[in-house]
Amino acid sequence: MALFVTQRVDKKNNDFEPLPEGYYEMTIDSTGPDATKGGTEYIKVALRVRKDLDQALPETNGKYHNRLVFASVWRRKATGQYDEGDLSSITQAAGYAPGTPIEDWNDWSQKLEGKNVRVKVSVSEDTYQGKTTKRNQVWPSDFEPTQFPTQAQMQSQSQPQAQAQVNDNDLPF
Q: Are 43 and 82 in contact (CB under 8 A)?
């Protein structure tokens, strides 16, 4: 199951140009369910190339900062479900430990929005009706934890989780 990333338009000649292959530090802007015109459902993940790393990554983020791209996670044809391993790969890359409880779709989305990830972007060629187009391709296994956490991320990772307060009256014994 591939995630496909949109291409940017070159305003000089209106040609589509994919991001060059490589690793990019990105922020997850949003996630949400979507569907094709034919009704095939998928999860759309909007990723933005981080603009705070121009000096640290001049050949990738420095050249393409703030560029918004979209990734799609498709339902498995055999099961009609999203692969838990694919969704888990993205969630773990965003900094959540395996087994992190996720209550529902909105909870998953909220956990991901604003998180930084490192993504490997490849370029593939697709031919449709005799026209060949280059497209970016990203696999769920190509999502990795960021190599450049922000100050807020470092603070949230270093602070222990708040412990629930338990009153003796709440105990059954």
A: yes
- Which residue did the predictor score with more confidence, 93 or 99? 93
130-164 tens-digit pLDDT: 999 888 887 778 899 999 998 766 655 554 444 33
**φ, ψ for residue 170 (rounded to 5)?**
-80, -15
To 10 degrees, the CA torsion angle through 126, 73, 95, 67?
50
Q: What angle do CA 138, 94, 17 make, to 5 degrees?
A: 30
In whole angstroms, what is the distance from residue 45 CA to residue 134 CA?
A: 20
pTM (2 decimals)?
Answer: 0.76
Contact in structure between 54 and 102 (CB atoms under 8 Å) = no
Side chain identity, residue 89: S
Shortest CA distance to 25 belongs to which of 7, 4, 63, 51? Answer: 51
Q: Are 146 and 60 in contact (CB under 8 A)?
A: no
